[in-house]
Design brief:
The complex is a heterodimer of chains A (474) and B (223). Chain A contains 24 helices and twelve strands. Chain A is an alpha/beta fold and 474 residues long. Chain A folds into three domains: 89 residues, no CATH class; 256 residues, NagB/RpiA/CoA transferase-like (Rossmann fold, 3-Layer(aba) Sandwich), CATH 3.40.50; 74 residues, no CATH class. Chain A has a six-stranded parallel β-sheet, with helices on both faces. Chain B is α/β, with parallel strands linked by helices and 223 residues long. Chain B has one domain: 3-Layer(aba) Sandwich (Rossmann fold), CATH 3.40.50. In chain B, strand 5 and strand 6 form a beta hairpin. Classes of the chains: A alpha/beta (474), B alpha/beta (223). Strand 9 of chain A pairs antiparallel with strand 9 of chain B.
């Protein structure tokens, strides 16, 4: 009996056959990848900053309890109310309570992956609140009822034509013959739709890219300015973010901000980088009357001190996705988890459990480009390999597990191993029947379906090496 | 309850050694008290003219407009000329910034004061600093320069003193401290590097996503 294809395999096969998706993904290397390369080339200190960024995050994580307490103290001194949420459910309840107390009806949101992770929209909508995503890509995703397929470009899987169709369906009160032929026309339409939402919102919710302990500030970056409108216009601003975002001082934040935009989009700096420290002050004539900060754990603390702890360095730039041959072939939705790409393959099993997401660690060629571009040097390949170990240990007995055990048995007995590889090489050589490649192999049809297996040319490397040594001997 | 539980779990997972707690806390205090210490890119560490040139090169790369005036008294005419050249209404909103209020405004330009409203077409702010390393404006919220001016109008004009163009973000924060008190932060410190933009539709950059469609820096020589 053939083993059932994994969910990732099924979804990625569908993604590879999806021409629209493939067209949309084709632009990733030319856009983000080339942009990052240009930004890196323009900053001689870039590689040194990566090491500094790594060290800052490691220091902050090793003292996470103390920096969270320091952040809380200083944020409270600036007038913010700090809330702590151990779980996704706690976080949603805190936000709901704040919205209820504010008598809110309309809530605007500025994109954050933590909202996706805790399922905030569904909870707010179940409480009869109107929830509007304001990041343009996220707005498109919301009206399609989808999830983001990329950390910083949530609608990267869509082309302008797809979005025009969605807008035509959703904005049915507008003239059907209006110009929707260019991205500029679509952006203008979204701007006109969303502006009244910004102005009418009772509560605005943003994430935070960083928290600064000493200043009690949250730092939020966007190119659209939607986070700024979201946090400035409503009466209540909620910052909802996860606990690993805290760094000691502004000097630490600058290092990470110098890495973030360059790694993400290749920009020198994001158009809007905002340090927000509490609600409206005495004498201020705009800004929210209340500012809440919700610190979400939801599995982070469990990772501290574990073999996977380095994943907590992540600043969510998306560079690992942009440079991943697997992500760029199948897109983010194939991963079937909130976080996609190499970072998703490492983070998702940590957050939702290896049984639910452990197979994502298989979705890598281990080429290592993700590690080379990660702005905080997360050893993504090592961490994925560790998840493979975990899922191998947990897996039920099966063909691959048996084969790996056989291999392990042989690999620890060198004479037997050499004998087996000699026999195997000879067998494969015979199977190739002089063609140099094998196009179908029993028990490995999933592998040979997409490529030929190069056939060994006769002797094993070990045998050839031994013969060469003998020939060269005096 | 969540608070204690989260902090307890963090401490448990960090596997702290009981005897090392005092040293650990002391290390954090040293870090919090410390200034600088990290690598700062060398590109901003250049002389005045070169620094301003670097700042201007990044403005151009972002698509930010630049107006240079040699003295503050010329700012009103420069603003009026900028709006006229783009067929924009001769109307402007600014906060209570006394420097901006004291400029010799002419009657051809209608001026509103206060936080920006939905229908405003142009806003005028004064920046605390400009950062040469990425062409970034540093704006502090408050009654003098309300944040909404930088967000709601389609055109945002920002007055910046040439002398306030610094090399790095670290130097800009020192200027903020000089204005508000050392270590003090405004409600929001807005670092603006260009007008509002998005690449979310088809990967092409479109200006004016939600905030201003155009940003103009008025670089002033004598303030």
């Amino acid at each position: 009996m053939k083993p059932a294809a994994s969910a990732f395999t099924t979804r990625s096969a569908a993604a590879l056959a999806d021409e629209r998706l493939q067209r949309a993904l084709a632009d990733v290397p030319g856009g983000f990848v080339a942009g990052r390369a240009r930004a890196k080339a323009a900053l001689p200190e870039f590689e040194a900053l990566r090491r500094t960024g790594r060290d800052i995050k490691d220091h902050a994580l090793a003292h996470l309890d103390l920096y969270l307490e320091e952040f809380e103290r200083n944020a409270a001194a600036a007038g913010s109310r700090v809330h702590w949420a151990a779980t996704a459910d706690d976080a949603c309840n805190i936000v709901l309570d704040i919205c209820r107390a504010a008598g809110a009806r309309l809530v605007t949101k500025s994109k954050s992956m933590v909202f996706e992770e805790i399922g905030l929209n569904a909870r707010l909508q179940a409480a009869a609140l109107e929830v509007v995503e304001t990041d343009l890509g996220e707005y498109v995703i919301q009206i399609r009822g989808e999830t983001p397929s990329h950390l910083i470009a949530p609608a990267i899987h869509l082309g302008p034509d797809d979005i025009a169709e969605d807008f035509r369906r959703r904005h049915s009160h507008l003239a059907p013959d209006r110009d929707m032929s260019s991205p500029a026309a679509l952006v203008a339409e979204a701007r006109a739709i969303l502006r009244p939402k910004f102005l009418g919102a009772d509560v605005g919710i943003t994430g935070a890219n960083l928290l600064v302990a000493k200043a009690g500030s949250a730092i939020v970056v966007t190119n659209e300015g939607n986070a700024d409108l979201t946090m400035t216009l409503p009466r209540v601003h909620i910052v909802l973010t996860s606990i690993e975002k805290v760094v000691p001082t502004l000097d630490d934040a600058w290092v990470l901000l110098r890495l973030l935009a360059r790694s993400a989009t290749g920009q020198e700096f994001t158009a809007y980088t905002t340090l927000v420290t509490g609600p409206r002050r005495t004498g201020d004539i705009d800004g929210p009357e209340e500012c809440h900060v919700v610190l979400v754990d939801n599995g982070r603390s469990e990772l501290l001190g574990s073999r996977m702890r380095e994943v907590l360095r992540c600043i969510r730039c998306g560079a690992c996705m942009n440079h991943c041959p697997v992500y760029c072939s199948v897109g983010g939705h194939a991963y079937g988890s909130i976080y996609a790409g190499p970072i998703g393959a490492v983070l998702s099993p940590a957050l939702v459990g290896p049984h639910a997401a452990g197979e994502l660690a298989q979705a890598s060629t281990f080429c290592g480009r993700c590690e080379q571009v990660c702005p905080v040097e997360i050893p993504l390949v090592t961490l994925m390999r560790q998840w493979r170990e975990v899922s191998f240990g947990d897996a039920r007995p099966g063909r691959s597990k048996t084969l790996l055990r056989v291999w392990a048995f042989l690999a620890q007995r060198s004479r037997l191993y050499h004998a087996a590889t000699r026999a195997g090489a000879a067998l494969l050589h015979a199977l190739a029947r002089g063609r140099g490649a094998i196009s179908r192999l029993p028990f490995a049809d999933a592998w040979t379906r997409y490529r030929d297996l190069p056939a060994p040319q006769g002797q094993t490397f070990q045998a050839q090496w031994a013969r060469r040594q003998r020939r060269q001997a005096p | 309850m969540s608070r204690a539980a989260i902090l307890a779990k963090v401490r448990a997972r960090l596997k702290l050694e009981p005897g090392a707690e005092a040293a650990r806390r002391a290390g954090v205090q040293v870090r919090l008290a410390g200034v600088g210490g990290h690598l700062v890119p060398a590109r901003g560490n250049v002389g005045g003219e070169e620094r301003v040139a670097l700042f201007k090169s990044f403005l151009a790369a972002q698509g930010t407009d630049l107006i240079e005036v040699d003295e503050a008294a010329r700012i009103p005419a420069a603003v009026a000329g900028y709006l006229r050249a783009r067929d924009l209404p001769p109307r402007l909103r600014a906060g209570a910034d006394p420097f901006l209020a004291a400029l010799p405004w002419s009657d051809d330009l209608a001026r509103d004061t206060g936080a920006a409203l939905a229908g405003d077409t142009a806003g005028l702010s004064r920046a605390i600093a400009g950062v040469a390393e990425t062409g970034t404006l540093v704006l502090a919220s408050g009654a003098h320069n309300p944040t909404t001016l930088a967000l709601l109008p389609e055109t945002h004009l920002v007055v910046l003193a040439r002398a306030a163009v610094v090399g790095s973000y670290e130097e800009a924060i020192a200027l903020v401290g000089a204005q508000l008190g050392p270590g003090q932060m405004p409600r929001t410190l807005n670092l603006v590097s260009g007008a509002s933009r998005t690449g979310d539709i088809g990967g092409r950059i479109v200006m004016g996503a939600h905030g201003p469609r155009r940003l103009a820096v008025i670089l002033c020589g004598d303030i």
